[in-house]
Structure formats: C-alpha cells, structure tokens
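Q: I'm writing up a methods section and want to include an example of the input and output format. Could you take the sequence below and give the corresponding predicted structure tokens, formatted cleanly so I can copy it straight into the document?
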Amino acid sequence: MIDTHCHLDAAEFDADRDEVFGAARQGGVSAIVVPGVAVDAFAFQKIVVERYAGCRAAYGIHPLYVPKAEMADLDVVRDYLKQGAPVAVGEIGLDHFVPGQDDARQAEFFVAQLKLAREFDLPVILHVRRAVDSVLKYLRRYPVRGGIAHAFNGSEQQAAAFESLGFCLGFGGAATYAGSRRIRKLLATLPSTAIVLETDAPDIAPSWLPGGRNSPAELPRIAAELAQVRGASLAEFIVQTRENACRVLPGLGK
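A: Here is the clean output for your methods example:
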C-alpha cells in the first residue's frame, strides 16, 4: 500500500514516530508521501523522509500557511525541488472553508507554485477544500503533469474534470464514516483508475478513531473499508491504487 498523503513530520508524532512508522510498515504500507506545508518545516521534513525507508517528500506552501509566507519563500521551495528527488510540488492549492482567508493571496501563491511544477516537470498534490472549481480554473490556465487532488469531496463532474487533467483523487478516513454518504457514493462509482489511498495523518481520523490522532498504520484498515464500499476485492483494490499512485507520481518508482 502507498499512503499518498501523510504528515509524518508533524509534531503529533514526535513522541513515537519510530513506532508509528514501524506499525505502518508491518501492516503493509510500503511507501509514504510526506507533503510540505511551510518552508520553515522543510528541513525537518527532509530529515524524516531520509530517515524512514519508503518515504518520499513533496515540497510546497499550504494555502493555510500563506498568511505567514513571503514571496521570497518561493525561492526556498525552488531550492528544495532541486534536491532530494521530490515526487511532487505540494501541498498546494486553495482553501475556501476557513473564514477570513485572503483568497487573492492564496491564488498568487498557488499560481506561482504551479509554475514551479511546470519548471521542474513535477506533478502536484492539491488542497482543494471548498475550492474545487477555483482550483480547476487555475489548472486549466497553468496545466501541469497531473498529480493528486487530496481529500476529494467534489461531484462526479468535478472528479471527471480532474481525471481529464491527469489527476487521481485521494480518499481516506472521511470515507469510512457511514454518514459520509456523498463521499461513499462517489467512491463507489469512480473508475478504479481514479483512486489513490491516503491518511492525511495525523488528521482526518477514520470512523474507529473519532477525534483521535490518525496514523499511516491505519491505512490497511482504511483500505479494507474503502474496498468494501466499492464492492471490490481488497487485494485487487490495493494493487490498483498502488498502480494509480505510481502513475500520477512517477517519482515513487525511482
């Protein structure tokens, strides 16, 4: 299994990161993509991905960290994209859910990082919360080589639009809740080639850990629940989602 979105460098794992990683590996998680959120965290993020086998980095400025960012930080992103063989630019995008955000400034940083992805010919890992149409608008203006729309919760039409642009859609803990009818219906009807697994650990805890700390070690159980929603064999679902992840993030195979 590949966890395509896990903040293993987050402070929530400082006390037991070795144990968390070991449990994930023992459960069958062979690769973990660790996305960046802010330039002052890149150095430790790089240490984490180099320490743990199968971990790969993406570097980018998360939209909710844009208020504390400076334009010069984009040069830092560029510097990190030059080293360490990152698999993507990310986590980048737009967030129209949290009130009080400067949408124009978010868009400025998003566009700048899409241009970096084009410069380095890298896919992107997208944050699209309540901003799917806006993100798609910018992707059409500044096309990149695809990637992943993380924590996808859009419509079938929006999903198809991402697929047409070379993206897969990330599903994880949110789809394990029986009450998440919209996400589960979408998950059940998408083409098998459109889906990748993720945890977003330590966030988006699954239904058996409501309000708790999520972990990459939960991915096997999440995968089993998602396969059941699709009416698919778990083994086939794992193989397909792994193939999908390696297709949209080719650096995983290097």
